[in-house]
Write a structure and sequence with these properties.
α1 runs parallel beside α2, α1 crosses α3 and α4 crosses α5. It is built from 6 helices and 20 strands. It folds into 2 domains: 258 residues, no CATH class; 57 residues, no CATH class. The chain has a 10-stranded mixed sheet with strand order 2-1-5-8-10-12-14-16-18-20, with helices on one face. Strands 3, 4, 6, 7, 9, 11, 13, 15, 17 and 19 form a 10-stranded mixed sheet that branches. Helix content is 17%, strand content 39%. The N and C termini lie far apart (50 Å). The protein is an alpha/beta fold and 428 residues long.
């Protein structure tokens, strides 16, 4: 029997040492746990459809350099923090100078602050379910801490721009930790972009801790190039009456994987998860979400839409777990999928696991193609076939695109979608 593949030891040697001692100790501890770690295979249930796309070569284990890169040309309508290859660029960043909102890079933390952070990193994620999150914890060389004091409100969105420059093979491990105090409010936009053509990997983690009454909106926009493998995880823990809203928009690549885990620990907490994915060519995108209803009277609403063209592949696995004490829970999950070509594939697996008896839960999933009757109707009214295809496809996802609360992000998404439509619908 062929032995299961394990993580190469080349990935267990982080380069950067410019971190406080408690974070270096945490990184060493996480790295020790990865020795001989089996890599996901088809027999790994939550990597069943994605393991064959995972390519972790020794060349990719090298940390990407940051010398000479500033990202200063990137302009956004709000505050911004720029990461180049996993390292924060203070000279290219513009963030608020407010007494009740603290934004710091990991390397600037005192030993006491770093010790507190080290105890809380990874606390929002089920590391057994998100196997490769441990790789980020063993390799991060920089990161961002965002702390909102009770009642703090950030008046503009904070853009965190993650740029990877692929002049040579390598990897980057950006990290964000958000601590939202009681009744605080923030909109955080994560934008992932790239340049260069060499094969690289981005492995990223973002964690949110929401205190009572906190209100957090997270927009995640993945637009990296065809040479970038992206493995990301987002962990969220919510306390009483807090609200978390997520908008994930992803464009496919050689491997795109995002695990989103939300844990509703306080009574009356709410979360809303929206997701849009488009793939073409031979691209692959895999979204895995988990919502844990731990406390009573919590609401969750989840809507994901996938569009796959050519011979591409999209995956959605959504799980809602209602714990025994989570009475009066209200949970709804909906996943709709659109195949634009017969060679495209979409796999969907909605899951409900309910241990309470006084709940309202529903889930649904559909996979189909563009309606020929609707297409004929539009063409018969003088609309070109390409334009008709675009109209019907855009209508399929427009409900979610229009809900993105930041206009600049909506415009960026629309621009990329237009490019997708240009390539997916060619005039005969």
């Amino acid at each position: 029997m062929k032995p299961a593949p394990t993580l190469s030891t080349a990935f267990l040697h982080p380069a950067g040492q410019a971190l406080p001692e408690p974070l270096l100790a945490l990184r060493k501890q996480r790295g020790a746990a990865l020795v001989d770690m089996p890599l996901p295979t088809r027999k790994t249930e939550n990597w069943k459809y994605s393991s064959k796309y995972l390519k972790l070569t020794d060349e990719m284990a090298v940390s990407l350099p940051t010398a000479g890169k500033t990202g200063s040309a990137l302009a956004v309508p709000g505050y911004k923090v720029v990461f180049i290859n996993g390292m924060m660029m203070p000279e290219a960043s513009e963030y608020p100078d407010l007494n009740n909102i603290l934004i710091q890079r990991f390397g600037d933390l005192s030993d006491a602050e770093a010790s507190e952070l080290a105890e809380r990193l990874d606390s929002t994620l089920d590391r057994k379910a998100v196997q490769l999150a441990g790789l980020n914890s063993a390799r991060f060389e920089d990161g961002l801490v965002i702390r909102l004091e009770p009642g703090a409100v950030l008046d503009q969105p904070l853009f965190v721009i993650h740029e990877v420059t692929a002049g040579a093979s390598g990897s980057a491990f950006p990290r964000i930790f958000v601590d939202a105090g009681r009744n605080s409010q923030i909109t955080l936009v994560e934008e992932y972009i790239s340049s260069g053509q060499e094969a690289v990997m981005v492995n990223t983690i973002t964690e949110f801790n929401l205190a009572e009454g906190a209100n957090v909106t997270n927009i995640r926009l993945n637009m990296e190039g065809e040479n970038v493998q992206h493995i990301g995880a987002t962990g969220v823990v919510q306390q009483r009456s807090s609200r978390f809203e997520s908008h994930c928009v992803g464009f496919g690549g050689p491997l795109r994987r995002h695990d989103l885990q939300v844990r509703l620990e306080g009574e009356g907490a709410e979360c809303k998860l929206n997701g849009v994915v488009v793939t073409q060519g031979t691209q692959h995108y895999d979204n895995h979400t988990t919502i844990e209803h731990v406390a009573p009277r919590c609401d969750s609403e989840e809507t994901y839409r996938n569009i796959a063209a050519d011979k591409s592949h999209a995956v959605f696995n959504g799980r809602i777990h209602i714990h025994q004490d989570a009475q009066k829970s209200n949970a709804n999950m909906n996943n709709k999928n659109l195949l634009l070509d017969t060679g495209a594939e979409i796999d969907t697996k909605p899951e409900l696991e309910i241990y309470a008896d006084d709940v309202k839960c529903a889930h649904g999933a559909t996979i189909g193609q563009l309606d020929k009757g609707s297409l004929f109707y539009l063409v018969s009214r003088g609309i070109g076939r390409r334009e008709a295809n675009v109209l019907l496809t855009m209508a399929f996802i427009n409900e979610l695109v229009t809900q993105i609360p930041v206009e600049a992000v909506r415009e960026t998404v629309q621009t990329r979608l237009n490019l997708f439509f240009d390539q997916a619908f060619q005039e005969a």
